[in-house]
Amino acid sequence: MSAFKSVLMFLLIIGIQAGIWAQEREKELTLQDAIVTALDNNLDLKIEIQTRDYFWESLRSNQAIFVPNLNIEYQRRETNRPSSGILSGADVEKQGNDTLNVGLSQQIALGGTLNVSLQNSRSTSNSAFTTINPALYSTLTLSISQPLLKNFGTLATKKDIYIAANEYRKNDLSLKQAMIDLVYQVEEAYWNLVYAHQNLDAKKQSLLRARDLLRQNEKKVRVGAAARIDILEAKAEVASYESQLLEAEKNILTAEEQLKKILNISQSAEVIMPTDSPEVRSMALDFNAFLQEAMDSRPDILQARIELESHNIRVKYARNQMLPDLQLTASYYTTGRGGDQLIFDPDSSPFDLNRPVIGVISKDVIDALEEVVSNLYRNYSIGIKLSVPLGQAQEKARLAQARIDMKRALLNLQRVENTIFSDLKQALKELEANRKLVESNQIALELQAQKLKAEEKKLSVGMSTNYQVLNYQRDYANAQAGALQSTINFNLTLARINRIIARNLEEYGIHFNDFQRD
Known about the structure:
The protein is about 60% helix and about 20% strand. With about 525 residues, the chain is an alpha+beta fold. It has two domains: about 25-60 and about 160-315 and about 400-515, Outer membrane efflux proteins (OEP) (Up-down Bundle), CATH 1.20.1600.10; about 70-105 and about 110-150 and about 325-385. The strands form two sheets. Strands 2, 3, 4, 5, 7, 8 and 9 form a seven-stranded antiparallel sheet that branches. The protein has a two-stranded parallel ribbon with strand order 1-6. A hairpin with a 5-residue loop joins β3 and β4 (about 115-125). The longest helix is centred in the middle third of the chain and has 69 residues, at about 155-220. It is elongated.
């Protein structure tokens, strides 16, 4: 009767579980599809893409220093003041001035600044001694200011651009590293789910064998061919496998949820059914070739080299800041004049406030600009300014800090190289060990199957004991678990090697260029 209850409980457990799964849709999923889904949905990867794009905008911001600036300025000024003497030409001096300046300024690559400006002014006065009223003036100026020592050259000008470009490259590589890590996480979660399903199948087989042995023992006890202790031992074994079966089912749920989390489909009610099976394939293990591939392709070592390059730029810039500040300034400008030139009666006194005007020579703004363009009135200036600090404590400290940072970057590069060497060496050893373990576990599984089959035959003819068969069943179950686990471990180690040498994107036909900015 107790055996019947045990069978009923087992069928009830299986039935309930089957009913739950029947209500949920199954989704068959290959490893390739899982990886593509993760790359499309994973939130951590989306964050990395946003971070990369942020540094792209930072680079664009730094490049904007070479965008020309247009300057437009207008000013109206009027002054009124009491006359200071007869030469003022009026009781109240009134002057008006309108200025309109238009200019372009441009940062040049060598560190200087180039300016082009057109200045226009119109002035009026109530003074009787003013001969041009209103007076129009135009001036076209070309000027340059160029450092010759400190801040000279493209390095001083483009330092921030170079560093911003390197930061963008580093974050682009961070995105690639995130993709490599994500592919490995999917592989690990996928194979763990495969193992969980295969382990469940193995537990079901073990439970069926234990139940079959229990039924045989019950028949033998009824006919007096076996002792009741054999039934108790078989029942204990059945209970143990039932517990292991429940644990295996729980492991499937855990492994499935982990994979769903990575794929960002945790809210999906579908049951993932992995369709790929782990394989053990032979491959050439060339440590030197793998090491070279890792040194050429791994994002972390490329990032370390870029970081070293950035610190080298900072050292050169800090060294340049130690130089004296020698500035060359030069300008060239031409002028033109317009307005109404008053022609007074030559017979009148120049001190006569009411002397008659006998004519006016008028020139408008166009006339003034024509004089500017014709280059009639040439003017230039050139100069050098030297500024030497009496102490350079701050500059020396910054140079020392830059050199320290560069040494740290070099040490970090060496550390990354050593890590790659060590990780790859260990992973290749593990892969070879796992390959041998797969072979030995497969042989052990076949031998355990033969032993169990032979022992069951011996038991059927009374030449073995129930205890011995139970032990052989446990040995076979352990051999099954070992064979499954070693095969999974081989595939996980192979996935880790592809991650170490940054090859796993290529293995699954994923092109990083598709994720880069145009």
